[in-house]
Amino acid sequence: MTTCRPNRRLISVTAGVVSLLTMFACVTAWAKEPKRVLVLHSVGRDFKPWSEYAKAIRSELDRQSQWPLEIIEQSLLTARSDDENPEDPFVEYLLALFVKRPLDLIVCIGAPAADFVQRRRQQLFATTPMVFTAVEQRRIQRSGLTENDTVVAIAQNYPAIIENVLHVLPDTKTVAVAIGNSPNERFWLEVLRKELAPFADRLSFIWYNDRPFADMLKHAAALPPHSAIYWHQLNVDAAGVVHQGDRALPTLFAVANAPIFAFNDAFFGGEIVGGPMNSVVEASRMTVAVAIRVLGGEKAGDIKIPPIGFATPKFDWRQMQRWGISESRLPPGSEIHFREPTAWDRYSEQIVLLLGALLFQAAMIGFLIYEHRRRHLAEVQSRNAIAQLTYMNRRASAGELSASIAHEINQPLTGIATRASAALRWLGMETPNLEKARAALEQIVAASHRAADIVTSVRAMFKKDTSERLPVDVNRIISAVLAIVRIDLQKNGVELRTQLDESLFLIDGDEVQLQQVVLNLVMNAIDSMRPALPRVLSIKSKLNGHNSVQVSVEDTGIGIDSANRDQIFKPLFTTKDHGMGMGLSICRSIIEGHDGKIWVTTSDTGGTVFHFELPRKTV
């Protein structure tokens, strides 16, 4: 018979696996169990600055903790009075609440909570780790600390607060201290009186601890000039009224006629000017860092944190503006919050783009103006050059023409003179030779006819034949001439006024010759107005009855002497220093060559009005 013996090695391995599984299950169960943290408030959950510490600590715990947390908050309501008897029911309540489910950590916020826990430690939480935070270093009873206790204390420098007031508001003479009358507040009242005593020769202090809140408001509204208010805290006023939440400070701010300062930035953000203050965020972050270390197994008594002093001074821009505090008066390195952004801060990119567009547009406009002026000057110079060239050409042509005419006429005139001398000689002889004299006289007559024929041919060269005339629009002729003299009008500062009758009929004529007439009259008008002001040129066209068109050119110039009025249309007569006396004579020849007439009158302003009239087009 075979006996089966158990395999000892197999049994050993199996036992090890079971042990590991059991341990893993325990660890898993432990990991799922949340760590319990009690947050104990000093006076209540809604009392600043401790309420702000509690909010920040809870937020940081949720962010930093690697374990699930069950955070329980309780408030030490007994800290509002001097009576310690109500603590017993609260102690029994806490014992009943945590006897079956012990705590992993207690976070005491504020000095009253720290004092209560230290007095009741053996009765309540003998071995539970504790972190005392948001408590000023002078309120810690270090002799009562155990190996399970650690402190994240804050340090308050009250003289620095008053120095800040005097630095930003150097004319300050009075400081009102807003503080309540609870046991904790009375402790700080004595500290403040002692530490601010060195300022007694510079400042007058008013203490609100013995006033009901209504009296505080009344007094703060009537503070003398150059006053400031130091807000410490107001948990319970002198009348025993509890002030929790955010109502007391805003109410005081609404009536106060002086700037308000504080020791903690829990009050910053609306009513407080600012300065060096304890930072809620900094202290809460340090508290949570310590709490995480304790929850991780580190002994609380081994963690030593130096007191946290005032943070970098910070100021409220809105309050600085209200109380006329210059930025140059702030301590070096100060931070300014709630600064109203300027238009540049808000729209710098848009402003840069807009300025760029405006500069580009201004540059383009400047370039166009420059280009327009350059072209205008070039046009004026070109017209002046053309006018000069035309004038020189006319002089040359006139010289050539006159030389040609003189040459042509000189021959028959020379012959006339020669033959006349010969005839005189023949007649002056003792026996006059009448035949030869008669022959000379006949030759003189022939030479005179030849001279007349030369003059007639010259006139015919400048006079158009009526068969070449075409229907023309007088208004179009006037408009064309005005376009030519536009620059001359602008250069001489002449105001142009036109009154052209749109119902004019066409006339028979030479358009170029009629343009010459209007151009001559307009240029004469401009010349006559050079020494006169104002300078107004008026051109009118109208129907004169049913058979003719009348054009008037009126100026406000110096006018024409009545003694010269009958001669101005004669050749070689001129009143200008630089004139040749041919312009108006040619105008008369052209108008009369068109079967019209031209005349001159004096205007109502003393200037001159030239009129010409042309017959309508024949059918």
Detailed description of the structure:
This protein has 619 residues and is of the alpha/beta class. It folds into 4 domains: 34-156 and 279-308, Rossmann fold (3-Layer(aba) Sandwich); 168-277 and 310-324, Rossmann fold; 365-462; 468-615, Histidine kinase-like ATPase, C-terminal domain (Heat Shock Protein 90). 47% of the residues lie in helices and 16% in strands. The chain contains 17 helices and 19 strands. The protein has helices at 8-32, 50-64, 87-98, 111-119, 121-124, 158-168, 183-195, 213-220, 248-255, 280-295, 317-323, 343-428, 434-462, 474-484, 486-491, 511-528, 583-593, and strands at 35-41, 69-75, 105-109, 130-136, 149-154, 174-179, 204-207, 227-233, 260-262, 274-275, 314-316, 335-337, 470-472, 495-500, 507-509, 536-544, 548-554, 597-602, 608-615. The strands form 5 sheets. Strands 2-1-3-4-5 form a 5-stranded parallel β-sheet. It has a 5-stranded mixed β-sheet with strand order 14-16-17-19-18. A hairpin with a 3-residue loop joins strand 16 and strand 17 (548-554). Helix 8 runs parallel beside helix 9 and helix 14 packs across helix 16 (511-528). The radius of gyration is 59 Å and the shape is rod-shaped. The termini are far apart. Mean pLDDT is 83; it is low at 1-7 and 17-31.
